[in-house]
Every structure is written in structure tokens, then in C-alpha cells.
Amino acid sequence: MKRQLIDQRHASLKLPSAVPVPEVVAYAGEEASRRYIEYFTARIRNASTRDAYLRAVNRFLYWCASLGIELADIEPIVVATYIEQLTDQYAAPTVKQHLAAIRMMCDYLVTGHIIQFNPASAVRGPKHSVKKGKTPVLSTEEARQLIDGIDTSTIIGLRDRALIGVMLFSFARISAALQMNVDDFFPQGRRMWLRLHEKNGKYHEVPVHHTLEDYLDDYLSASGIDAERRSALFRTVGNHRTLTPNRMHRSDALRMIKRQAKNSGLPDAICCHSWRATGITAYLSHGGSLENAMNIACHSSATTTKLYDRTSDDVSLDEIERIRI
């Protein structure tokens, strides 16, 4: 009966079915359901943020439902209890993200006059301080080993090498790289440039490294998509091992990275972000400045860029080896 009620109210709203309404919100009335769906479909534009916040908020609301807590009865102590339980299960950054998602959602319900106050505003998450990122970084030799091990006799191999090259030589986020179209690889002056699709609809243009230019030229020449200027640059592969018109998803790219790492005998902890971190580390270790690395990576703060820098690792190891007993 509960499920039927939720489905009926959701259908009456005539809004995207991709955003199911939790029963705690559905029982609060049609306007609460509308406000909830509106937040995730109209307020949050970034797909990655939307997915993460939707999972976080729904997890909390389903937890409330399991305890018989209605939307209007959610108080700071309820949110604090939930966050405390999360702290025992997840790392601090994950818990803080969940709290931020709950807090922002409640703010939206307050401004829509669905609830009277934000019960999450007074709740504090776990403390978390980071001086060094946890993303696995490849050495120059490991990166070269993986790239050289890619079978470039196939269109799949040429695509994989080109995508890895974009992340490595332009410090691109995987989401920015996958949103590129064919015409985002373009000439400007005497050089080729990349136009990366960053967060919040921003574009970031960087000159193309000569090695990456070769990778992209080989891929476009073999694929025959260079004339399809407004279409996806990095595409999925169909049943006949040929490119489809469909754009690759982050999960496709991650599977590709894992597969190539396994083929090269490298740890399976390597992820898409490893190439961004590897590129920044290689740049800084060869005399590049932190300020320029920040600009290339499109970071708003040098502190963020510094998290990707692992050039101090070798220095620390050398110093540790001085302990001789």
C-alpha cells in the first residue's frame, strides 16, 4: 500500500522517474514531493554531484523511515545520531559529503516552506585534515610500461591510449575528458589545443603535448570520426568491436583502466584519477612550478594541486634509509 501511494503521487507530478520519492517525503504531501524532485532535477546541474547527493539523502531518508520518523519530526539529534553511525562505517570525507547533502536538501525544503528549520545545520561532521592525497600514482617507468603495453593495432587500443594521454598530459579530470567532442581538439596558432568541459559548464583550454597530439591523430585517423566535429570524441565499442556513436561513461573508462593495468602487471588500485595525479607529479618533478600546475589542472587553490604532488615520497624514503642500526 505504501509503495502504491508513492507511485501514484510520483506519477501525478509528471516528473522524471529517475528520481523516486522516498516514503518519508511522499507522506509529507505533494508539495514536499515536488520540492524534493525539483531539487535534484533542477537545482543540481552536475551529474556526478547529483548522483552522489541523491544516494546520500535517500540513504538518510530510508533510515528515518525504518525508525518511523516522519519528515517534520527530523531534529538535530536525529541527524547527529545518523552521522555518528556513518562515522563507524565510512571514512571522514564520505561522512562529511553525506552531511553536506542532507544539509543542502533540508535548506531547500526550508525555503520551500516544507519544514520549519534545517535540522542538519547545527550538526558537525568528523574532523578531517589532508596534506597528501590517497590517489595511487604511477612512476614514470610504470606509466610508460602501461602505455607501451596497449595494443594499438585495434581501434580500441588507440582510443584507450588517447584517453589516458588526455588525462596524463593535460591533467584532465575523467569527466572533463569524456565530455569532449571531436572539435574540442583544435588548432590555434601553430599548436593543437584541447577544450576540456569542466564543472559548472566551464571550459578550460590547454595546449596539447606533442606526444598526446600523436595519440589523438592516430585515433582520429583510424576511427574516421574526425569529420564528425560535434560528436563525442571518446566512444563506446559495439558488438563488432567498432565504435558506436555513444559517449563513454566514467564506469567504462574505469573498467578500461583496470583492464590495461592488469595486462601490464600493475596494481589494480590504479584508477582514472591516477593519471591526473601522475601527470602533475611528473611535471613538478621535472622542474614545473606549482602555480602553473594549478592553472593547467584548473584548480582554484594550490593546496588542492599539492595533494596530487608525490615528489616528496622519494626524499622521505631516502631520509628513512639513513636510520642505520
What would your notes on this structure say?
- The longest helix is centred in the first third of the chain and has 20 residues, at 47-66.
- The protein is built from 15 helices and 5 strands.
- The chain has a 3-stranded antiparallel sheet with strand order 1-2-3.
- With 325 residues, it is mainly alpha-helical.
- The model is unreliable at 8-17 (pLDDT under 50).
- The chain is globular.
- Strand 2 (191-197) and strand 3 (203-207) form a beta hairpin.
Supply the helix-strand structural class.
Answer: mainly alpha
- The SSE string, one letter per element, is HHHHHHHHHEEEHEEHHHHH
Kindly report the average pLDDT value: 85
How many extended strands? 5
Number of helices: 15
Arrangement of strands in the largest sheet = 1-2-3
Helix content: 40-55%
Q: Roughly how many Å apart are the termini? A: 73 Å
Runs in which pLDDT lies below 50 for 5 or more consecutive residues are 8-17
Q: What proportion strand?
A: 5-15%
**Over all CA atoms, what is the radius of gyration?**
24 Å
Largest sheet: 3 strands, antiparallel
Please tell me what the overall shape is.
globular
